[in-house]
Amino acid sequence: MTALQSKVNTKVFEIIHAENYEEMSRIAAKRMIGLVKRKPNAVLGLATGSTPEGLYKLLIEDHKENGTSYKGVKTVNLDEYMGLDRNDKNSYFTFMREHLFNHIDVNLDNTNVPNGMATNMEEEAVRYENYIHEIGGVDLQILGIGHNGHIGFNEPGTSFESKTHVIELAERTREANARYFNSMDEVPTHAITMGIQSIMDSEEIILLASGASKAEAIKRLVCGEITEDFPASALRLHSKVTIIADEEALSLI
Ligand code: PGA
Known about the structure:
The protein has 8 helices and 10 strands. The protein is of the alpha/beta class.
């Protein structure tokens, strides 16, 4: 047992069983829309990847049909590849514009993705971290989970005390993300990511998982030990985390 484990009172997650990806996305959208209605100036922590795409689609639908407004909302994204121009089709800046920001009434000046092309990346990391605190911190952070337990781009071995920082991507992560690129060579080797501590500072966290390929990671998250070798396990030390996952992702627990 690590010192950390003995010190803390680990909590059981709220786990919402969704039948499939669509239902997972619907439940998450309902929660996020509820927050924006209750708190029109909420700070939303957003993620990229396949997992939240359905959620963003539903936010757009709801915005168009019911007029939910994001005019007062600020957003901060978890991470960005290093060395990709923000207008590159694979940058997370572009992902967010295409999958959400261009289709709702959020003020683009209030949307934030770390700059993966900054001349001084250490300065950019400090700037991003400070900005999150200046705007009052994240009210609701959306997370996916990597097969190796990464959250954001915090790969295994990342300190639970980490703030926004530069990280070398794990080979497994690069392989998983190679589907978006023409070849493995094009997949960036480094990224800038909010740290584990930055994520843990969020008021509330929703972790989404869908599909059989995430089942091992979800099992380890829920049943495994709390260790920096499995970054998502830090979430067991947070008091308000909901896992919304579909049957396949929950099949091993
Ligand atoms: P995915 O990525 O949503 O594309 O599966 C999740 C992650 O790597 O955090």
